[in-house]
Amino acid sequence: MNVITNDNMKCMMALAGLELVMDPEIGLNVVDLGLIYEINFIEEEHKIVCNMILTTQFCPMGESIVDNVKMSLQSSFAKNEAVVNLTFDPPWSLENISEIGRQFLNR
Known about the structure:
alpha/beta; GMP Synthetase, Chain A, domain 3; 30% helix
């Protein structure tokens, strides 16, 4: 899955940090699960806006995962405010999982 962004270099840095954010129930990071849809950098406002999804709207660890995504972005870009928005459009599917994630999950 490709992440939509307005700054490819910064997005790669953000994704590297987000690879450390795990979905504790699945044991796979949010990047390889395909939970990150979009990361944009609003320079004039010193803001990072991340749109993401969870594997299900009723994910019991959802709040924790979102908080960890926000903390990771803030850690990677300390002078910026991170805003994380949950969206369920388009809905998450197994097709979102990266090849590395598929290997990890034996899919």
